[in-house]
Structures are given as C-alpha cells and as structure tokens.
Amino acid sequence: MTDLAGPVDEAARALLGALVVRDTASGRRVARIVETEAYGGPEDRASHARFGRTTRNAVMYGPAGRAYVYLVYGLHHCLNVVCGPEGEASAVLIRAVAPLDGVAQMRFRRGRSGGADWRLGAGPARACQALDIDRTLDGIHLLRDARLWLAQPAGHAALLADTEHVVTGPRIGVDYAGPDWATRPWRFGIAAHPSLSRPFPADP
DNA sequence: ATAGGGATTCTC
DNA sequence: AGAATCCCTATT
Questions:
Q1: How does DSSP assign chain A, residue by residue?
Q2: Verdict on whether the full-model pTM lies above 0.85
Q3: How long is the CA A148 to C1' B4 vector, in angstroms?
Q4: Which residues pair with A76 in a beta bridge?
Q5: What does the alpha-carbon distance between residue A22 and residue A31 come to, in Å, rounded to a whole number?
Q6: Nearest nucleotide, CA A115 to C1'
C-alpha cells in the first residue's frame, strides 16, 4: 500500500487510484479513490485538529492507516485515512470514489432522484453512503479490518493509468480557516474524472 | 435558495 | 448552562 506515514499532502496524492473495499452481510462493494483532501495538525486552521486533541479527533493522532469517520452537519458521514507519524495529527479526507463493484447495493441506498452510477460516490458523504460507512468504523485498521480496507488494483504497479494525471486546488468548504489555509492547494483529484465531487479550478 | 439534522466545541 | 458551528446533500 501507499506510504501514509510521510507528509499528509503527499499521502493525499498517493491515495488517488487506490481501492476501498467494503464487506457487509449483503456482499462486497469496491470503489476507487478519485479525489482527496489533506488535513494537518493544530497549525492547519481547517483541520479538526485545530483545537488540539479532543475525544472526536483522537484517532487522527494515532498511527497511519486507521479510519477516522465523523458525522458532519448532523446527517452525513465522512471517511478519512489517518496519516503521518503516531503522535502527530493528520488525515486524508476521501472526497470522491468511483464505484467499481457492488453498484446495485449502492443504488439501493440512494435517494429517489437516481442518477448515473459515476455519481454514486461523488462527494465525501456520498462516498460513505455508497459504501455504507458510519461511525461504527471509526478507528479501525484500514489495512487489516475485515469490514473495510484499502487495496491496490490487481495487476497494476501504478495506481493511475498512463492517461490519467493529477489536478490540485483549494480545499472545499474551509473558508473559515483564513486565507493562508483556505487557499492552500491540498485538494487532489484525477483530472476530468466523471466521479469528481465538483470541478477543479484548473480542470473546467 | 434552503431545509434537514445532531454532535462537538466555544463562550459565558 | 446555552449558543454557535460544522470538511454536505437533496430538493425547491
């Protein structure tokens, strides 16, 4: 698996193209990570760690490779991959995934508006909805747990195809963090991918 | 445009 | 203690 212990922005870039596998009683779902955002420690005014260690964000301070799952706006879940060395807070938010397998189950959980399969995981909360992720998975080992784990596409040395390249932009929804942190280009995506949550500035 | 919804953190 | 805030989505 990709090295997650280094700088969080590098980890966020490196996770693009990796697979998320979710096993439940109703079967297996697989999706490919196509968009991420890096979040740092207390110095990062956009991060959940900006107020230091709390009961909610404690897992961010743990070893790399754990899941940090939280509830946002009272109704949506977001999945993060904890990064960096143990004792330092950082995590990569999974902002969008492209469904690969188990799509029928993802569709079943959707609202009645329907939509193309590509959009089922387009957005941090939709990714969790598609993969049936909630806070019961907070803190699990994403390389060992039987319910949810990260994997590489079989038979691919590189996570990205030759035709794919990475675009960057400012993180979404973090204006409160002040200009320095709000504009930092810590959002990463596979350029022009149909499952992106929304366009990148450089990728119109 | 805005309702929807609840935990978390801040401010007395 | 009460109030404000929040890495969003679906619907109007």
A1: ----SS-HHHHHHHTTT-EEEEEETTEEEEEEEEEEEEE-STT-TTSGGGG---TTTGGGGS-TTBEEEEEETTTEEEEEEE-SSTTS--EEEEEEEEEEE-HHHHHHHS-TT---GGGGGBSHHHHHHHHT--GGGTT-BTTT-SSEEEEPPTT-SSSS-TT--EEEEPPTT-GGG-HHHHSS--EEEETT-TT-SS-BTTB-
A2: yes
A3: 29
A4: A72
A5: 9
A6: C10
Q: How many residues does chain A have?
A: 204
Å separating the CA of residue A113 from the C1' of nucleotide C11: 9
Residue nearest C7, CA–C1′ metric:
A173
Q: What is the mean pLDDT of chain A?
A: 94
Q: Which residue is nearest to nucleotide B10 (CA to C1')?
A: A51
Name the closest residue (CA) to the C1' of nucleotide C5: A73
| Domain locations along chain A | 8-181
Which nucleotide minimizes the distance between its C1' and the CA of A75? B5
Under CATH, which architecture does the A8-181 domain have?
A: Roll (3.10)
Residue A94 pLDDT exceeds 60:
yes
* pLDDT tens digits for range A125-162: 999 999 999 999 999 999 999 999 999 988 778 999 99
pLDDT of residue A113 exceeding 90: no
A78 touches strand C (CB under 7 A): yes
